[in-house]
Design goal:
- It is a single chain.
- With about 550 residues, this protein is an alpha/beta fold.
- The protein contains 17 helices and 15 strands.
- Helix 7 links the parallel strand 10 and strand 11.
């Protein structure tokens, strides 16, 4: 039968008062202590991360509803989770089983298909492929397991059947199935909300209560459908995640994640129906959310419905995946952030400093550039302390902001040693192990987090259809420029007599156009290709490549 309401009553947002949170407290899992603390949205506090299975972590993330282009908001969320996943795997040696769903059965997909004159399968397949391609471009690891709602409708039906049988869901005369929120006393314990503010004077007459949500939607002409015990129809939004995650992980998940906009109603509804299905009060041990993204100057979150999105191809036209990943690292993963040119300046500069440091350090390691006697003891002490700080930061709710601060302090100390006044008496076979150790550590750590500080040069070299690599070409150009510049300068004026200085000035004046040309070549290579040439007072000129934005290098080294 259809449940009717006799009066229209104003429904407002209700806070799930602390009594509800106390009634359904978080229970400390039994299992493997990791030494990591993680912020659990359920308790609004940091808690020890304990794995239900030793050395293995079960992680479910809500994937996209595939009806439009992914945007920077999606990119930020999935890059942040990718960094956490890599930290767990690469730093703490935990085997992460990372599952994601695609919601490919939804009203928005149906509406888009009608609008563009395609089937829902064509629309969802196109945007699913686009999403996966965009994630690959951002160097986000593919999920261990991927499921689509349309491939698992029978699992959804069986899930709903159990909820109906246990009295947690009810069937209406029109063939809809709703979750009965009043049947679960813990409803609201995650988000501490029960009803959206937008649910005001009217709601579906089939519902018993405004907060009851749809599990099964009856078929409409022209829409896709499946047969079910309640007639032809299709799954509602929330039920797909619960059914698919339960199919893979059963009745216990270690981490469940999603964007901050999913806390209510989606995650609240997931938790309610899953706890009822599995007869438990804690289907998920830890809930984590990524902060939302706003465009600079925009007070609203970036979303397709508001039309204020920046697509991922648009992002990658201006910045590299490394630069955007650094942007994601410099703020806590749960913090709301603004994206735009101003916000991207710092991550671009930091990456350029890392790349520049690596080039100078590699030159020193290979005996190039000025002779400098670095203090190995000082550098090794700073390296050891940095390693401790970094590991401690990453174990503290994956604090990449603190990690990067410690790493850049190490770079600063190493650069200071490498930039000391040169000592002509230092033998070329000097000890370089401390500089090599720091360079190796930074390379390894950045690689563990999904960066590749050397990929740009190697990718260019791999694509060249020539026996001479790009590196050889740049070396030749740098050496030729150095010889021209040396000729135009006419000698070392610092140690010359007054007469020799006078002759050098005359020589430089007569060859000033040649000297200007070498400077123009240096600037052109930097602006167009991100190739930075550094001239040394002693020794050969050196070069390195930096991440380049569409407007040219953001920080000239």
């Amino acid at each position: 039968m259809a449940f009717q309401r006799s009066a229209q009553t104003l429904v407002t947002k209700k806070k799930c008062i602390p009594e509800l949170a106390r009634k359904y407290p978080w229970t400390r899992p039994q299992g493997d202590e990791t030494g990591i603390s993680i912020y659990n949205f359920y308790t609004r506090s940091k808690l020890p991360l304990i794995l239900s299975t030793e050395g293995n972590l079960k992680w479910y993330v809500c994937g996209p509803t595939v009806y439009a282009e992914p945007h920077v908001g999606h990119a930020c969320s999935f890059v942040r989770f990718d960094v956490i996943r890599r930290i767990l795997m690469n730093v703490f040696d935990i085997n992460v089983v990372f599952m994601m769903n695609f919601t490919n059965v939804d009203d928005k997909i149906i509406d888009k298909a009608k609008k563009v004159g395609q089937t829902t399968e064509q629309v969802s397949s196109h945007y699913e492929s686009t999403f996966l391609k965009n994630m690959q471009q951002l160097n986000v690891l593919r999920p261990t397991v991927v499921h689509r709602v349309s491939d698992n409708v029978q699992n959804v039906i069986e899930f709903i059947e159990r909820l109906v049988e246990s009295g947690h869901a009810y069937v209406t005369g029109q063939g809809s199935v709703f979750f009965h929120c009043d049947s679960y006393e813990g409803y609201g314990s995650l988000s501490r909300m029960k009803v959206l503010p937008s649910e005001k004077t009217m709601f579906d007459d089939q519902k018993m209560k405004p907060q009851d949500f749809l599990l099964w939607k009856p078929h409409k002409v022209g829409e896709l459908f499946w047969d079910s015990p309640w007639g032809q129809g299709r799954p509602g939004w929330h039920i797909g995640c619960s059914a698919l995650a339960s199919k893979v992980f059963g009745g216990k998940i270690d981490i469940h994640s999603g964007g901050g906009d999913l806390k209510f109603p989606h995650h609240e509804n997931e938790l309610a129906q899953s706890n009822c299905y599995h007869h438990t009060n804690q289907w998920v041990n830890y809930w984590i959310h990524s902060g939302l993204v706003r465009r600079e100057g925009d007070s609203e979150k970036m979303s397709k419905s508001r039309g204020n999105i920046i697509t991922i191809p648009e992002l990658l036209e201006k910045y590299t995946s490394n630069q955007f990943r650094m942007f994601c690292l410099l703020k806590p993963y749960a913090m709301e952030v603004e994206y735009g040119e101003s916000a991207m300046k710092k991550p671009v500069q930091i990456l350029n400093k890392l790349t520049s440091h690596r080039a100078v350090a590699q030159s020193y390691i290979h005996g190039e550039g000025p002779s400098v006697d670095v203090s190995n003891d000082v550098l090794m002490q700073h390296l050891a302390s940095t390693q401790k700080v970094v590991r401690s930061a990453l174990a503290d709710n994956f604090d990449t902001q603190q990690m990067m601060s410690a790493l850049m302090s190490l770079v600063q100390v190493c650069n200071r040693e490498l930039c000391k006044p040169s000592n002509k008496n230092v033998i070329r076979a000097r000890e370089v192990y401390s500089v090599a150790a720091i360079t190796s550590y930074i390379d390894k750590l950045m690689s563990q987090l999904g960066f590749n500080l050397t990929s740009k040069l190697e990718s260019h070299a791999d694509s060249a259809n020539s026996s001479q690599s790009l590196e050889d070409i740049i070396n030749s150009v740098t050496h030729f420029r150095e010889r021209v510049r040396s000729f135009a300068l006419g000698g070392d004026a610092a140690n010359a007599t007054d007469e020799e200085k006078s002759l050098i000035r005359v020589h430089r004046d007569s060859h000033s156009a040649l000297l200007d040309s070498t400077d123009q070549l240096r600037d052109k290579l930097a602006d167009t290709a991100g190739i930075i040439i550094k001239d040394a007072d002693e020794g050969p000129s050196t070069w390195h490549m930096i991440e380049k934005t569409s407007d040219g290098p953001s920080a000239r080294e």
